[in-house]
Specification:
This protein is an alpha+beta fold. It has four domains: 92 residues, Rossmann fold; 68 residues, Dna Ligase, domain 1 (2-Layer Sandwich), CATH 3.30.1490; 128 residues, ATP-grasp fold, B domain (D-amino Acid Aminotransferase, Chain A, domain 1), CATH 3.30.470.20; 99 residues, Glycinamide Ribonucleotide Synthetase, Chain A, domain 4. It has 13 helices and 23 strands. Strands 12, 15, 18, 19, 22 and 23 form a six-stranded antiparallel beta sheet that branches. It has a five-stranded parallel beta sheet with strand order 3-2-1-4-5, sandwiched between helices. A four-stranded antiparallel beta sheet has the order 6-9-7-8, sandwiched between helices. A hairpin with a 5-residue loop joins strand 20 and strand 21. Helix 7 runs antiparallel to helix 8. The termini are far apart. The relative contact order is 0.14. The mean pLDDT is 97. Bound molecules: adenosine monophosphate and glycine. The site of adenosine monophosphate (AMP) has 15 residues, from strand 7, strand 8, strand 9 and strand 17.
């Protein structure tokens, strides 16, 4: 069969790589893809939001299945457009992708169906938000309702900061219309865990857990980023946590979406915080995580095509989703300056050392071919150096060893991805 993947990041490279392992697949296309993705897929010069062109491409090339990796096209309704044309596509429809697309929607859903999350209020007027803040406890969390590249969340230590935050989101419109509505929520403490799942509208199957490192600098300092590295499984995702989430969060979310007339098919990403009072939902995403996909998919035993098809056909209950009893660590190599200003266009050396057969993966995020055909840096997050190991300690050592194989000007990385692994072992 022929598969089209929509997206261009490290997540889409991991998805394309995993699809390439299926013997059901003869040809993979990726739109728009990147330099690394072209090792496993033919990259097509169509952007993820150009739905009409993507539909035309899928028809012209007799694509059997389209897989959408990114949030923007999903929230924008790409799945509805494909379905209307009779094309097979993996991902939630627009009315279900709102689970990620609107924080106000997801918070209201959790409240209505008693799914554990932080207490909150929603505001459409800056004046009302400010009035509310005057009696609130600090720190407090401000969230833009809509998509903001993972950057629309402000943690405010004082009233002054929070008032300035309301101005930033609602009046200065730092994230455009995403800030027309804001959610103000209780600040929670605890470890964060990412749990990805496959959903077919009724049944949910949980993938192995992962732990992200969102801040730019070592010691979880600096600005929030898309993610600077992560590992799977999380040693803090214990059986007790799993039991709690199975009882109160996972199936409850799928059932709630169904009850609302918004059946969810695709990947639900549960951003969880393990608070002293138990697990709470921080956020939902309607897609694989980036870089969570990079550490979870290399550990997945199933043919991913079977799982995608089962989600579309509503037969996920028949799938026995399995993961290797090993560990995987991904360290992101970024352009120095990310997530603010950075330079790009630098040649990347050392890619040939990676061999997936040995458990080393170089997932490309921001890369491209320059005019001379050389692979150069083309974004903030450039590469995801990913390695397997028999356990987290070995996988981390392997990943950091492999970060030395790759060089480019302005290479930046965190040196403490997985430092909590040591705490877990104590
Ligand atoms: P979100 O995009 O909602 O996942 O938020 C981004 C990051 O902000 C999360 O990964 C947390 O680190 C932090 N965060 C979000 N909500 C809260 C909260 N209620 N309490 C504490 N930290 C939060
Ligand atoms: N790594 C977090 C995300 O994909 O949203």
């Amino acid at each position: 069969m022929k598969v089209l993947v929509v997206g261009s990041g490290g997540r889409e490279h991991a998805i394309c790589w995993k699809i390439s392992q299926s013997d059901k697949v003869d040809k993979i296309y990726c739109a728009p893809g990147n330099a690394g993705i072209s090792q496993v897929a033919e990259c097509v010069d169509i952007k993820a939001m150009e739905f009409d062109k993507l539909v035309q491409f899928a028809k012209d090339n007799a694509i059997d299945l389209t897989v959408v990796g990114m949030d923007d096209p999903l929230v924008g309704g790409i799945v509805d457009v494909f379905e209307k044309e009779g094309l097979r596509v993996f991902g939630p429809r627009k009315n279900a992708a709102i689970l990620e697309g609107s924080k106000a929607f997801s918070k209201d859903l959790m409240k209505k169906y008693n799914i554990p999350t932080a207490a909150y209020e929603t505001f459409t007027s800056a004046e009302d938000a400010k009035e509310y803040l005057k009696t609130a406890e600090f720190p407090i969390v401000l969230k833009a309702d809509g998509l903001a590249l993972g950057k629309g969340v402000l943690i405010c230590g004082t009233l002054e900061e929070a008032l300035a935050g309301v101005d930033e989101l609602m009046l200065d419109k730092k994230f455009g219309t995403a800030g027309d509505t804001i959610v103000i929520e209780e600040f929670m403490t605890g470890r964060e865990v990412s749990v990805l799942s496959f959903v077919d509208g009724n049944t949910i199957k949980i993938m192995s857990s992962a732990q992200d490192h969102k801040r730019a600098l070592d010691g979880d300092q600096g600005l929030n980023t898309g993610g600077m590295g992560n590992f799977s499984p999380s040693p803090f995702y214990t059986e007790e946590v799993d039991d709690f989430c199975k009882k109160y969060i996972y199936q409850a979310t799928v059932d709630a979406m169904k009850a609302e007339g918004r059946p969810f098919k695709g990947v639900i990403f549960f951003g969880l915080m393990l608070t002293p009072k138990g697990p709470r939902v921080l956020e939902y995403n309607a897609r694989f995580g980036d870089p969570e996909a990079q550490v979870v998919l290399p550990r997945m035993k199933n043919d991913i095509i079977d799982v995608f098809e089962a989600c579309i056909d509503g037969t996920l209950d028949k799938v026995d989703l399995q993961f290797e009893d090993n560990a995987c660590v991904c360290v992101v190599l970024a352009s120095d300056g990310y997530p603010l200003e950075y330079k790009k266009g630098y040649e990347i050396f050392g890619q040939e050392r990676f061999n997936d057969k040995d458990g080393y993966y170089l997932f490309h995020a921001g890369t491209k071919f320059n005019e001379e055909g050389k692979v150069v840096t083309n974004g903030g997050r450039v590469l995801g150096v990913t390695a397997l190991g028999k356990d987290l300690v070995e996988a981390r050592a392997n990943a950091y060893k492999a970060t030395e194989w790759v060089t480019f000007a302005n290479k930046y990385m965190r040196h403490d991805i997985g430092r909590s692994i040591d705490e877990a072992l104590k």
